[in-house]
Structures are given as structure tokens and as C-alpha cells.
Amino acid sequence: MKKTRAPIKFRLHPFAFFGFAVSLAAMPTSCFVALAVSAVLHECGHLTAAALLGRAPREITVLPIGISIDYGAAGSYRDICLAALAGPFLNLLTAAMACVLPLSSDFAAYAVAFSLSLAAMNLIPLSFFDGGSALGAVLAMRFGIAAADNTARVLDAVILGFFFLIAVYIFFYSSENASLLILFAYLFAVIIMKRDGSLTR
């Protein structure tokens, strides 16, 4: 008998609409649409790669600042690495396409900026991000899961400490640069909401 696959569960975070409303109110419409498209395509990269690797998502949760995808049982380290890198890769491809497609100049500029930003941020080797998931999978393959976990803890502490010092400096000495403060606030919020370290970016 053919085994039936459990249906995907969809959940909505209690503050998802609040995050949506704040983002929409804080930026021009074309900017918001470009951000939404870049974020959705990023997640589509993960979902497509996971599907090709035979890893169906178990649960998808809409968060105030993104989407969390729970794949349930982990696949091989190779599959984890490939699925993690698929999101940033699609962001880079989106940025390249936005440069050549006949789009409005404002939308194209926003799409390139957000796509490159999402790719760069998610490739930071924090265990909660795509870069950390990919690096952890590679280290686990080469040196074992214990070494990968220890490396992740050290990297998380060093990188988060570095970001914290930058955020403090910006707050006290460059308070007029609100965009960087928003970026760091986004970064720490993502870390808190994706603390489980799974491939959910």
C-alpha cells in the first residue's frame, strides 16, 4: 500500500498582521512589494530544493518578520546543506534578473537591494541562518556532530557579540542612521524566533 503523506500545516503567528502593517506603513508601496517578493522567492528556493531532495515541509508558519518552515525529520547532511543554500541562491538569481528585466527603476532598485541583502544576511554563519545550517552540515560530515555543534556555539557567541557592539556604537554615536538600527533589530528578532536552528529560513 502506498504511504500517504501528511498534509502540510499552516500557522499564523499572533503578531504576523502587526509586522505586515508596520512594514507597509514604514515604506513606499513599491519598496514593500519588492521586499515581499524577495522574501517569498527566498522561501520558494528552500521549498523547491527540499521537494527535489524528497523533504516535504511538515509545517509552515507566517511570522511577523518572515516565514518559518519545519521539515520534521532531518535529511542527510548533504540535503541540509543544499536546501539551506537554495534560498540565498535564488535571491542572487532574483537580483540578477531584476537588473535585466524591463521593470520600473524604483522597483528594480528595491528588488536588487532586498534580494542581495537577504542573501548576504542569510549566509552569515549563525546557526539560525542558512549559512550556519550549511556550515554545520559540512562540519558534521567532516568532523562529526559534536565538533559542528561546538563550532556553532563559538561562532554564534562571536558574531552576535560583534553585532551587539556595532549596534551599541550606532545607537550612541550615529543615531541618525536609523536604517542600520532597523537591520540589527530585524537580525536579533529573527534569531529569537528561529532559535531551534532548523532549516527554516
Provide a concise account of the structure shown.
The protein is mainly α. The protein has seven helices and three strands.
Search tags:
201 residues; mainly alpha; 2 domains; 3-stranded mixed β-sheet; 7 helices
Structure write-up:
Helix 2 packs antiparallel against helix 3 (77-100) and helix 2 (29-52) crosses helix 4 (105-122). This protein starts with 8 loop residues before the first strand and ends in an 8-residue tail after the last helix. It has helices at 16-26, 29-52, 77-100, 105-122, 130-143, 145-173, 178-193; strands at residues 9-12, 59-63, 66-70. A hairpin with a 2-residue loop joins strand 2 and strand 3. The longest helix has 29 residues, at 145-173. It has 201 residues and is mainly alpha-helical. The chain has a 3-stranded mixed beta sheet, with helices on one face. It is globular and about 45 Å long. Helices cover 68% and strands 7% of the residues. The protein has 7 helices and 3 strands, in the order E-H-H-E-E-H-H-H-H-H. The protein folds into 2 domains: 1-123, no CATH class; 125-195, no CATH class.
**What value does the Rg take, in angstroms?**
18 Å
Shape call: globular
- Whole-Å distance between the termini? 34 Å
**H and E string:** EHHEEHHHHH
What would the average pLDDT be, to the nearest integer?
80
What share of the residues does DSSP label as strand, in percent?
A: 5-15%
Low-confidence stretches: 195-201
Summing up helix and strand content along with how strands pair, one would put the structural category as: mainly alpha
Q: What characterizes the major β-sheet?
A: 3 strands, mixed
Number of domains: 2
- The order of strands across the largest sheet is 1-2-3
Kindly state the percentage of residues in helix. 55-70%
